[in-house]
Amino acid sequence: MAALIPPFTREIATTKVRLAEDGWNSRNPEKVSLAYTLDSAWRNRAEFVNGRPEIVAFLTRKWAKELDYRLIKELWAFGENRIAVRYAYEWHDDSGNWFRSYGNENWEFNAEGLMQRRFACINDLPIKESERKFLWPLGRRPDDHPGLSELGL
């Protein structure tokens, strides 16, 4: 496979989306932060995050609140150095209330293939535990697990 740097082909964009999904499913903030530039700028919902230290702090807080987090991302569109994804993730709070969060992200990459800008819009839907669809063991989504389109999401 070609290097995962711009300009993107469909194959490279799809691979970058899956690698991002795998990273976030690891729930390892330090590891995830390495995919972003040192001065990466995010908007996540109404929160603005700048740079790797703030990314690590943000993800640490996120995964302390969003328990048993499981994520699926899907490529929506791509251009020379940009990728748009849609995604959903399931999690529960410390009271056992389950949610499926739906979102869209716009990503912009530098010449080395690190994400320099990330804009995320997310909506949380309360669900019953019996309505969960992301049932693999914590960690990477198995290759044979359906994606968002196959799940009708």
Largest sheet: 6 strands, mixed
The helix content, as a percent range, equals 10-25%
- The whole-number mean of residue pLDDT values reads 97
- Identify the strand order in the major beta sheet: 2-1-6-5-4-3
Q: Which structural class best describes the helix and strand composition?
A: alpha+beta
Number of strand segments: 6
The domain tally reads 1
Q: For the record, what CATH class applies?
A: Alpha Beta
Morphology: globular
Tell me what you see in this structure:
The chain has 153 residues and is of the alpha+beta class. It has a single domain, classed as Nuclear Transport Factor 2, Chain: A, CATH 3.10.450.50. 24% of the residues lie in helices and 40% in strands. The protein has a six-stranded mixed β-sheet with strand order 2-1-6-5-4-3, with helices on one face. A hairpin with a 2-residue loop joins strand 1 (36-44) and strand 2. The two termini are 29 Å apart. 22% of the residues are buried. The model has no long low-confidence stretch (mean pLDDT 97).
Strands, helices and their partners?
Blueprint (H helix, E strand, L loop, with lengths): L9 H17 L2 H5 L2 E9 L2 E4 L1 H14 L1 E12 L3 E11 L5 E12 L5 E13 L26
